[in-house]
Amino acid sequence: KLDSDQDGWSNESEIKADTFPGNRDDFPAGSPDSDKADAGVTAEASLVDQLIPKHSFHPVMIHFPIALFLFGTGLEIWGWRKRDSEMRRAGWWALLFGTLMTLVAVPTGIAALLRNGYGWQGPALIHAIFAVSATTLMILTTLWRRKSELESKSYFALLVLAALAVGAAGHFGGQLVYGN
């Protein structure tokens, strides 16, 4: 509730508005009186933000499918090279569950994108394009693999392409959070 630069806006309001609370010339739009009038709404919004953070649980929901799918890719390729059916079966299950988890990861990603106000531009757009591509490739790869162990070079090319798309989507998602 402090007002470090004494411009009439609380530090909390300036941080939420992405303005600098230590610079008197940098403050949210509107008037400081509206800040005090909206205090009840701010308290309510912060309760919602405490229950559902702005990231909408996307970081929690996405790391598991990424790990499972990439691990499954590794097991599938290694099992193919070693002619080990058990390893390939483990790879199949990892691919399957990694792909199924995207059913939760994608909606939380869209919610996080919208709640954080990124918009469909720049790194957010690139991340979304790679995420949709990765999800589509994961689904196609998993559906193709479901029948039996495959020896096709086309299958392995699709599998590797899916894994690369997953990695690229993760990279650009990291840029959204951590910057360049």
Q: What order do the helices and strands follow?
A: HHHHHHH
The coarse overall form would be elongated
Computed Rg: 22 Å
- How many alpha or pi helices? 7
Query: How far do the termini sit from each other?
Result: 32 Å
Q: What share of residues is helical? A: over 70%
**SS-based structural class?**
mainly alpha
Strand content: under 5%
What's the overall average pLDDT, rounded? 85
Oligomer: single chain
Low-confidence stretches: none
Outline:
The chain has helices spanning 11-16, 32-37, 39-51, 58-82, 85-115, 122-145, 153-178.
Describe the structure.
This protein has helices at 11-16, 32-37, 39-51, 58-82, 85-115, 122-145, 153-178. The radius of gyration is 22 Å and the shape is elongated. It has 180 residues and is mainly α. Helix 4 (58-82) runs antiparallel to helix 7 (153-178), helix 5 runs antiparallel to helix 6 and helix 6 runs antiparallel to helix 7. The mean pLDDT is 85. It has seven helices and no strands. Helix content is 73%, strand content 0%.
